[in-house]
Design a protein that fits this description.
Length: 223
């Protein structure tokens, strides 16, 4: 009886969520957590998401059995990005939670969040990539800037800068070798995957030039 009661409560709550998402007044995805929803730890949250995905499949199955194809398609289209995002974040967390460069040794990975040190990120002028010798870059970096520097946090690099209305759309990091550009990208990706920052970003796809160089003679559709 207790099992039945818990299942019935779960089903009713999920159907209410589906109804809310399908309502014209609430054109939102299921990924957003409601204010009255209980906060749980990572493992229990993963179990909750797995149960919800399973019930979503059951709901879509019964909607189609009831010949409610339009309603099923609408529900699927509004929930599909959220399901993909959760799986994508899970994969990114597994891939980027460890640091495999620098001090890390083969077979002995280091947790990025334990070793990461905040970088001093400043706004720079736009321009071409600097191909000068590394020593000259170090000398240039040591000079005092002509105008005051604008310090930017890792989680704010795509947010509007002070005095600007529009967010940053394109960003290029510059710095001498070993200064932490690759690790900064890894930290940015991990924070997003762990829901710590940049909640307005729907998807993040990190690529390295090493990986892109292997895609020669292949054409891809940017859409």
């Amino acid at each position: 009886m207790l099992l039945e009661e818990n299942i019935v409560i779960f089903v009713k709550n999920e159907l209410k969520r589906f109804q809310r998402v399908l309502s014209p007044e609430h054109p939102e995805c299921l990924g957003r957590q409601s204010e009255d929803e209980e906060v749980v730890d990572g493992e229990e949250e993963e179990q909750r998401r797995s149960s919800r995905e399973a019930f979503l499949k059951i709901t879509l199955h019964f909607l189609r059995r009831l010949k409610q194809e339009e309603l099923a398609d609408s529900l699927q289209s509004k929930t599909f990005p959220d399901v993909c995002q959760r799986k994508h974040k899970s994969n990114l967390k597994q891939k980027f939670q460890y640091l495999f460069e620098g001090i890390a040794k083969a077979g002995n990975p280091t947790l990025l969040n334990q070793i990461y040190t905040e970088l001093h990120i400043t706004e720079g002028e736009s321009g071409e990539v600097n191909d000068e010798h590394e020593v000259r870059q170090i000398e240039a970096a040591s000079r005092k800037p002509v105008r005051p520097e604008t310090t930017i946090k890792c989680e704010d690099i795509f947010k509007p800068l002070p005095g600007r209305d529009k967010p940053t759309r394109t960003l290029m990091t510059k710095g001498v070798a070993g200064i932490g550009k690759t690790v900064l990208t890894q930290k940015f990706t991990l924070d997003w995957a762990e829901d710590k920052a940049n909640h307005n970003i729907q998807f993040t796809f990190p690529f390295t030039f090493r990986e892109l160089n292997l895609l020669k003679r292949k054409r891809f559709n940017p859409s």
